């Protein structure tokens, strides 16, 4: 189904690439996003959906001098988040805290809890374990994976372990397995690598070029979704990683972002450089449930997995985030700094 957006919009002042659900805010649907301006002082916006769901309100606006390339909200403290930033050709990462009385201050300043120093070269992302309270963080640069121990009360972060991906691999991002605190997937030019954080060693890989983004299915173990340059969206059962179990081809250009719904099985968002957000329903059958009939079912017997295309964007879509509080709501962010919040209630399976 094709269709424009009926969503709620909010405009940032500058270009932007990253947006995150504020999972720890259990009273509201909230998102946090940051800008990417080379010449201007950048901003972090804390956004909240109004009680009636008709307006996106800026609850806090904070200065962040450097360009923000990656931003993630802490899953257990709604005032804490991380950024990866650059100034010129140098990159850095830090954990920040929003001041407690930010709504009553004229120009609230973010408090830097910890700097994640020690990286050389381009830093790509900081990962929080998504499934609960955990004092560990992961940061990934082009060549290395760092595991940090974070102590917010002491405002300190220490490197617990570090490992190189190898000379032939240039890491670009990753995702932390919500079902296993010791497992992380890291993307690079020619594969998706799977790491055991206890030994800091690679355990397996999917040989796949030009994977831009990955996300684990929070509802089912062993399921990973990838967004790829020219091949669209692929769903994998990690116990048999040679070939994907499903292919979702609905982008006319590179697929850049993918996000699995935190509550509803099979609902997946994807966005890309075709200025489109696609909503998919692709319920996964794991290898435990596979039969010869389900594996070899012809494509004509399957329903179209594309539920809707939201296509009223003017620029590439790099940021996607489901609401944890209201999982039928998502936010998207296009490069021109436009945030759009949509409801997908009309597409939810009938009970």
Describe the structure in your own words.
By secondary structure, the chain is an all-beta fold. It has 1 helix and 29 strands. It has one helix at residues 292-295, and strands at 2-3, 8-11, 16-21, 30-35, 42-49, 56-64, 67-73, 80-87, 90-97, 111-115, 123-128, 136-141, 144-151, 156-164, 171-176, 183-188, 191-196, 201-207, 211-216, 223-228, 232-237, 246-248, 255-260, 267-272, 277-281, 306-310, 317-322, 329-334, 338-343. The strands form 7 sheets. A 5-stranded mixed beta sheet has the order 1-26-25-24-23, with no helix packed on it. Strands 2-29-28-27 form a 4-stranded antiparallel beta sheet, with no helix packed on it. A 4-stranded antiparallel beta sheet has the order 3-4-5-6, with no helix packed on it. A hairpin with a 2-residue loop joins strand 12 and strand 13 (144-151). Residues 290-301 have low confidence and may be disordered.
Summarize the SSE layout with pairings.
Elements: E1 2-3, E2 8-11, E3 16-21, E4 30-35, E5 42-49, E6 56-64, E7 67-73, E8 80-87, E9 90-97, E10 111-115, E11 123-128, E12 136-141, E13 144-151, E14 156-164, E15 171-176, E16 183-188, E17 191-196, E18 201-207, E19 211-216, E20 223-228, E21 232-237, E22 246-248, E23 255-260, E24 267-272, E25 277-281, H1 292-295, E26 306-310, E27 317-322, E28 329-334, E29 338-343
Parallel strand pairs: 1-26
Antiparallel strand pairs: 2-29, 3-4, 4-5, 5-6, 7-8, 8-9, 9-10, 11-12, 12-13, 13-14, 15-16, 16-17, 17-18, 19-20, 20-21, 21-22, 23-24, 24-25, 25-26, 27-28, 28-29
InterPro entries: Beta-prop_EIPR1-like, EIPR1, WD40/YVTN_repeat-like_dom_sf, WD40_repeat_dom_sf, WD40_rpt
Domain EIPR1-like beta-propeller: 5-280
Organism: Populus euphratica
């Amino acid at each position: 189904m094709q269709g424009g957006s009926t969503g709620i919009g909010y405009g940032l002042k500058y270009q932007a690439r990253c947006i995150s659900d504020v999972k720890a805010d259990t009273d509201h649907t909230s998102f946090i996003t940051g800008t990417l301006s080379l010449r201007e002082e950048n901003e972090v916006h804390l956004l909240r959906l109004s009680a009636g769901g008709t307006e996106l309100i800026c609850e806090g606006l904070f200065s962040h001098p450097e360009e923000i390339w990656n931003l993630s909200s802490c899953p257990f403290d709604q005032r804490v988040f991380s950024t990866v930033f650059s100034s010129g050709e140098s990159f850095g990462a830090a954990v920040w805290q929003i001041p407690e009385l930010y709504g009553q201050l004229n120009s609230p300043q973010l408090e830097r809890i910890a700097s994640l120093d020690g990286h050389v070269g381009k830093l790509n992302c900081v990962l929080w374990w998504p499934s609960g309270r955990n004092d560990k963080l992961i940061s990934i640069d082009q060549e290395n994976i760092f595991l940090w121990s974070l102590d917010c009360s002491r405002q300190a972060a220490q490197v617990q372990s570090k490992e190189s991906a190898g000379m032939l691999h240039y890491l670009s991002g990753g995702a932390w397995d919500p079902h296993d605190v010791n497992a992380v997937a890291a993307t690079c030019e020619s594969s998706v690598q799977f790491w055991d954080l206890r030994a800091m060693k690679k355990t397996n890989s999917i040989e796949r070029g030009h994977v831009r983004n990955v996300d684990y299915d929070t509802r089912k173990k062993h399921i990973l979704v990838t967004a790829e340059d020219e091949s669209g969206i692929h769903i994998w059962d990690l116990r048999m990683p040679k070939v994907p179990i499903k292919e979702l081809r609905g982008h006319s250009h590179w697929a850049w972002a993918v996000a699995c719904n935190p509550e509803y099985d099979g609902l997946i968002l994807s966005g890309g450089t075709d200025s489109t957000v696609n909503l998919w329903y692709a319920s996964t059958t794991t290898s435990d449930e596979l039969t010869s009939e389900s594996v070899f079912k012809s494509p004509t017997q399957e329903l179209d997995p594309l539920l809707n295309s939201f296509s009223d964007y003017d620029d590439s879509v790099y940021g996607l985030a489901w609401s944890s509080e209201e999982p039928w709501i998502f936010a998207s962010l296009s490069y021109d700094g436009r945030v759009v919040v949509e409801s997908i209630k009309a597409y939810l399976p009938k009970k």
